[in-house]
Here is the input.
Amino acid sequence: MIAPRWRKVFRDIGETPLRTALAVVAMAAGAFGVGTILTAYSILTRELKTTYSDTQPASAILVMDGNGVSDALIDGVRHVSGVSGAEARPVISGRLRVGQDQWVPVILFVVRDFRDIRIDRFTANSGAWPPGDDEILIERSSLSVVHAAIGDRVVVRSNDREQSVRIAGTVHAAGLAPGWMDHVVAGFVSWKSVLRSGESSQLRIVVDGNRLDERHIREVANRVSESIGKQGRHVTRIDVPTPGRHPHAAQMDTFLFLLGAFGALTFALSAVLVANMIHALLTEQVRQVGIMKTLGASTRQVATLYLGQVSILALASLCIGIPLGISAGLAFARFCASMLNATIADIAPSLWIIVAEVLAGIFIPLLVALGPVIRASRISIHEAFSNDIGRRPFGTRRFDRWLARIQFLPRPLMLSLRTAFHRRGRLVLTVATLAAGGAAFIAALNVSAAWTRTLDADARARRFDIQAVVSQPTAIADVAKALATVPDVARAEYWAEGRAMLGDTRVSIVGPDADSKLIDPVLIEGRWLMPVDDGAAVINQMVASRGLHVGNDVVLRINERIVRWRVVGIVKELAPRATIYAPPRAILQATGQSRDTTRNVRIVTRRHEVADQVTASKAIEQALNRAGISVDGIQALSDSRKSFADHLVIIKTALIFAALLVVLVGGLGLTSTLTLNVFERTREIGILSAIGATPRTIARYVVFEGMVMAVLSWCLAVIVAVPITFALDAATGQMFIRSALDFFMSPMAVAAWLVLVLILAALSSFLPARRSARLAVREAIAYE
Amino acid sequence: MIQLQDLTKTYNTPAGEFLALRNIDLEIAAGEFVAIVGKSGSGKSTLLNMVGGIDRPSSGSLIVADKAIGKLTHNELALWRGRTVGFVFQFFQLLPTLTVAENVMLPMDFCGDRPASQRRRHAIMMLDRVRVADQADKLPSALSGGQQQRVAIARALANDPPLILADEPTGNLDSETSVEIFTLFGELAAEGKTLLVVTHDREAASMVNRTVTIADGCVA
Here is the structure.
């Protein structure tokens, strides 16, 4: 038999179904928000890692001179100490035609045996497997870039020849970056493919022992290199991808960090919401606390009852919030995995997530309830039976008196203001709830806007429209002559460019013309290059992240020679590529290139719209072809900007998702909070009705009070959003581009939250206010 | 049963210090049925609150049922109250979500003196004692004011306390019901309970053994 006091708890919950529902919905909204993010986080963290590790990623890629990688050579490599596996994987680089005179870069991996792939594995997705000799398999995420379907024939141009091949099917290569994001088509061809000619001879190895130890991998790779050398071949380059890191790991880290950060913010929001609910719940129970105490209830007994009530509500909210949160989290995880070219094999969220949610869902409400419950339980009977318990009468504070002196405002407005500030506990909790939601919303949109601005700033730094790369060093005069035939070309610059090794990292070295107007980089530190500079260099933040500062020397290996330049500046770029800018003559001297030849051309067109850049690109390629100059690649700035933007899609998705989640959780919380506020004031509303206030007047007055709270919360949200935005800008920027984003307070975000919070406040105050105003005066005054 | 010596109660209000009771000396013997009368704001309810341990005196001595209750902690006071005092209020103060019988069982539940299995039977006995046993399973909202006050009295008797305190118990009832309630109080006094009743009801006040008049915080 249940004791009467516990029956009271259950009946109190059932007695006011609307209020109980509001409290449960508000708590469930918090559980849903946290559950969604934690579920997505746990599934993605696990699945992205396993999806990538299941591909058996190569520990090192060795690039050799000469053509072909024989089976005998691979057998020899497999016997080198420390090598666990080796596979030949020559790479054909070229371009693939996607429309009339429109080409996209393509990378085709040549596979020795499709039935025995042990390194950098990929799996059949659709269509045929393996491909025929005049067929290719396209990585599934590249299909949208190709603008073709399985069975279509496409033209591939590589090594100055064009070949038509059929798309036999698609594959899923989880170790490759998504093609739609990089704007590069990735594919696979057979060992006897018709496309094979002059490809890069590459082999991939997997090491024994600790596969995450880069030094160990390099030692083994060097032994392999020596072994290959003994077989008469020369290894020209050893690439060691960061062990255990997917090519887009930085995006994943940033994305997962954002999920985690907003998970924490949603958690905080939900805790404030719960505190608000409990405050509302206890406010109306004060008189009953008094009655129970007169009947002999101790403080502990009363506290136990209300903590029990909170636990029951929390359990009910968990029953709703957790399943919904897990479903939403799974759906979001699936969407994000598809964006990162991963597949979710196991949809079950980690057990610790469910345990954590249940524990947090029960203990957080209990924790935030503990203070108010103890306060309410300790209340004296005398206070409990007084109407305004524990509340200082209006006018006893300096602020109240100042407020009371304001006489010029309309009376309902004055009443709203004074009532709002009189009930300070309620005001603080309501404003805190709304501000927590608002700050998270504004911060999410701020960070999203900061990324857009970073993208814009990066685009502004490059003041050319098209960049063309020709196959061989070509006389600048010949290129200029060909470009002169294209009316769309306004001017062109021929920068010295090359490759260098900074320790074990490959870096691009770029030498803009001394008086170039085509680059205006964003400087983080120091200065840009000057015509008088000699032996000076400007590094981007990716190079700086290796501990280099202005005034340090950057030591490079170029063509087996050591070159030392003094760092005079550091620039911020969006491209995650390590780049060093130096005077052209220094680069020409270091690389041994001729002053009169070039492979890179930066072109300014007469018109700069996207369509103009595309048209000009085609015309330029045709002109170069007519002049007998083979083009390796041509890219409009709009395309590279789009590629950068596509890299940010996943981050922006996380931010927009977080903002929407906050609106949902905050919106529900706001509605419940303000609705409960009006419930609390039913007696007061009855008195107003008794002295002649019409339902319309009462509704207006209550709605206005809700809006006063909304505006106060908005002010606080804007202030709190500043440090949150700073922290998120710094963290996400460091993770993705190794440099904090510039702080930006988005006026759109600030305005959007104001509009949203005002609408929500008006709606959630109006409906209960109208209901209360329609109650008979007697009912309202007798309301308990 | 009740001994008050030089009892004073002062409240600090925004308007300044308010002396609610001053130097009260009062003794009430066990089994007495005492009415406390006086104008509104004279200090009647404050006096009742002091005796019931609802409020604490600012100075003076207060012994109720042989206990100096001013020295008890909050929890000791709660337990003492549950076992020693039965309260009856003007607005009944029944818990709206509990049935009549459950309301009566609640004090037993808090004090835990009676085995759980016997509590309902005892509650029905108390309800029968005040002639509302037939309403045991109804919610308070289904009862008339007089019936609710009878339930409140039954609840006050639940732990068989020696002292019943009633604050304007008939203030919300018609005259006929008021007489019924005071008759019931008289019966309880006859059974040996001590009753201290704050009232404005002159007719009802005439049914008590003794009347104590309070004026401006003093015993007149």
